[in-house]
């Protein structure tokens, strides 16, 4: 198991790793973490705590997720890892021709056209039914209360909210965007510490809790969602909602120096992290802050993304198998392409996303790695009137190239950026981890795993350490705290390196590890309002 007693990274924040043995919740907002802990203390398990935290996050961090988004989870229960893919497909009337006939070269970012079926409420219901101990009305009660009574907005959320409001006032002119402003910024975005509440959001959460999400997919809420999207010119119909089912899937993994690193299979791009780790395990890394370490990490992620962007799609439409991509022979072939200078693999242009991530653990051994998102912050800009339901825009990730495996088609799930991670060793759970943030996510996973396994950093130190993000071509963004010799050295190897002081651009992560004695050790993101609630 990872060593809990290692020192913090020398450039670390003042946070320290948190220890507990009865339960733990780690996420990006303190009130959401406390909502999860209160459910543990009321007799719920880690799955109930994850639902409570996730529902609360839609209220306290609407700048990154919402009821109308998608979710993925890795659940350790009964000595086994279970995968949940709750991403939604394109509506049945959404076709390549329906988008291109309007003159679009890509699926738009905002408005009704990129709206696919939301999977988040179905994820909560499915988790509760299969593994939970408490009814949804109990686990979601705190989220309802936060929405109805209000809460003080935390600093990082307020910043993201204000940034989005400025952008949307410039971008959103159509009448169907009015409801976003009515809900989230009737006059302006909230300031840090200002109370924000949403009765519509509370009513929707209450309805989901009381009906096991049935009202969202086939009841009154479903009718409101479908009517609103269609009135704005979108494709989503009530039949699309009624026919939606989550996918319990088999997680995929690679072994990295004795640890099995687990991800959700495509349509998610956790495969990119595994491809990069497969390449990197053929090198020896003795120190973290060396030029060779950073160069090889960056080159490996570039090769992994080149493959991921070419092949990842709804699994029914992929032309290359996951097992072939993760074979040692293929990893050896790709590793041989890494030379002494920066290379330019063929890849797309990664975009940024808006996502929340959480980890939970209880004293019985259950652990959850869960991630949910509306994408690009608030999503499509479409808010169903009077409900607080901000609809996501995942359809934007479809290709409109008819020859690409990720090409838009009715009922097909798009390439997806949100990925939960999990670590095991010798068949035993080590724990959940994740780093949210669009195309930064697999890059964050690789860096966190290497910080843990190669460089023996404890969970907090693994998150504190400065990060890099490959953007496209030779362009690499380097976090401002990165030692100067690495910046200059990478530039000397032809990397187009750029200092960045925007800490949010480098993802926001959470980690909980469990040792052989059952002691939990957690770390939370210093780049946001991260918090660990421990028991």
Proportion in β-strands: 15-25%
Class based on secondary structure composition and strand pairing: alpha+beta
Estimate the mean pLDDT confidence.
Answer: 94
Secondary structure: number of strands: 21
Count of separate DSSP helical elements: 19
Span between N and C termini? 21 Å
Low-confidence runs of at least 5 consecutive residues = 347-352
What overall geometry do the principal axes of the alpha carbons give?
globular
Rounded Rg = 21 Å
Biggest sheet: strands, sense, closure? Answer: 7 strands, antiparallel
Strands in their spatial order, largest beta sheet? 1-20-19-15-14-9-8
Helix content: 25-40%
Keywords:
535 residues; 7-stranded antiparallel sheet; globular; 35% helix; alpha+beta; single chain; 19 helices
Describe the model.
The protein is α+β, with helices and mostly antiparallel strands. The protein has a domain at 26-73 and 103-245 and 379-389. The protein contains 19 helices and 21 strands. It has a seven-stranded antiparallel beta sheet with strand order 1-20-19-15-14-9-8. Strand 10 and strand 11 (367-373) form a beta hairpin. Helix 13 crosses helix 16 (328-335) and helix 13 (270-280) packs across helix 17. It is globular and about 60 Å long. The relative contact order is 0.20.
